[in-house]
Design goal:
The complex is a heterodimer of chains A (about 300) and B (about 400). Chain A is mainly alpha-helical. Chain A is about 75% helix and about 5% strand. The radius of gyration of chain A is 19 Å and the shape is globular. The longest helix of chain B has 30 residues. Classes of the chains: A mainly alpha (about 300), B alpha/beta (about 400). At the A-B interface, helix 1, strand 1, strand 3 and helix 11 of A face helix 2, strand 8, helix 7, helix 8 and helix 9 of B.
Chain lengths: ~300, ~400
Amino acid sequence: MSFQIFLQHLVNGISLGSLYALLAIGYTMVYGILRLINFAHGDIFMLATYIAFYSITSFLLPWWAAFLIAIILTSAFGIILERAAYRPLRSSPRISIMISAIGASFLIENLGILIFGGRPKAFPIAPIFSHVVVIGNVSISVVTMIIPIVAAIALIILNYIINKTKTGMAMRAVSKDYDAAKLMGININYIISFTFAAGSAMAAIGGILWGLRYPQLIPLMGIMPGLKCFIAAVIGGIGNIKGAVLGGFILGIGEIAIVASSPALSGYRDAFAFVLLIVILLVKPTGLLGQNSAEKV
Amino acid sequence: MKRKLSLLLALVMVFSIVAIGCSGGQATTSGEPKEEVIKIGVFEPLTGANAAGGALEIEGIKLANEMYPTVLGKKVELVILDNKSDKVEAANAATRLVDQDKVPVVLGSWGSGLSIAAGAVYKEAGVPAIGTSCTNPLVTLNNDYYFRVCFIDPFQGNVMANYAFNQVKVKKVAFIIEKSNDYSVGLAKFFQDTFKELTGDQNSVVYTGYYNTGDQDFTAQLTGIKESGAEAIFAPGNFTESALIMKQAKELGITLPILGGDTWETPEVIDIAGGAAEGVVFSTFFDPNAKLTGETSKFLEAYSKKYGKEPAAVTALGYDAYILALNAIERAGKAEPQAIRDALAATKDFPGAAGTVTLDVNGDAVKSAVIKTVKGGKFTYLTTVEPIKK
């Protein structure tokens, strides 16, 4: 493999890894606060791409306005989802919320088929994104370059919110000890809504970038990325945001590496994610950056 | 709060029971109508990765139904089921058609894998099925109840390999195969057999990459092709994934000719791949410019009247499957599965919209293939290839 080809693979891997990372953050944030695996997260991601799609094609908005609206509406949807499907069950056993999450996921997928139709739609791409830059023998489209940059900016903002603001401090408190935080007068409902909004916004950014890179929308498009990013979150240590990012990159680059190293193995790239999950669960169940906790999940 | 919630839940339950009751009621009324009808089952992907293909075929079937609404003096009723582009669902839909709806004949499906999955159900139930555009040989092989109105992949693979060798003049090709799709795997194999023979070079296939149905990232496979020294890419598979392959190939600066099969002729390929679809070449069943039979003109006229555009090849095949079913019922003289099967097996020189249908011993149609390309955002006719005389 020549160095240029290696670079091309690396660029592809980083781009895919950034998308996984953005989506994995949503899983890990919700888990950190509620100890809930939000199975509907992949479908929120799907909704974001459809909102952006309809904003551009039906409401004829410029792309940046459409993306902004998609992020805002998706965050709002995340809050509504939590209120409708998870909040009523907050005091129930955890398994009930998890089943509710699976139910919400199926509901959104099938509503998607009903409302958007089962035929794939082409995501409209503004010309500035589809421009291709050629450096030596390495071809990079503008989207491919933008993805890691946008992901990095989103992460920095999120990191700032969590570590430097009062809301962020409250979030950390809730994730450390839910009951104690409640006793200290933290508005739990607000914090949880905020967490869902932030996680969904990350999914929306990921979804829009995904649409720009893989411009094909179907209502079931969230399932596989959703599953993989859940795995990415577990690999990195679920509940840990830096872990989710790390997990996303390991998965993205790993997948590309598998296909690049041997074309014969290229049909097994999905299997790679699941094998990795099993290995991590066997070797280090808390994930790479996860803290040890006595609690069994 | 709790009480309100339980009340709401109770209401939902009552409502759903009523809803189920209603739909059940409708089903029974359609099952025993006053006027006697002949049911024809249709199983096609209406959702999932193959949905666009299914929709095109249903267009043709419905159009044919409007033009020929009766057979043996009875009204024809279409029972359309969604096989969800999923092999398990395909078998479920097939079971429902033969057990619950008790149709005497079935049309479909787009996608060989789906047809193969359902084939066993039809064979066991003794209900004949007419394939529309499922081209894998295994659909009809060892199944006396599956027929089809299209050619099969050994021929299609041969046509494309010849085209690559003689017209594009390439000696090395790369494959990208949809691993979980019988159609894609089969077509690549037949292409490879012919291509190796033509070039006389056992190593003429320099790269073979795979992907799974639903994959969206093909950059790794395409980057591999970039350094493999291939002169053309053969990538038969679902149109959704294929469109992304075309797009990503362009983004990676790959300018090699991209070749494929009949599944690519859907408007979505051009929508999704955009400018990257320009110049791709694929084989298909039919072109409106090649008027094949008297039925072709009738079909084209009715189609443009209803939809105001040119039909896709698979739409013509959906149309043909329907009129062949009607013809078989007529020849059988009754809407009874075994009689229809026997009539179908004896089909000879039947004039369909997409060419004359003569079924061979396996139940496959022997027909010519059409090669098309994408030019200026439109599917454009290149040439016609006649069937190989055995």
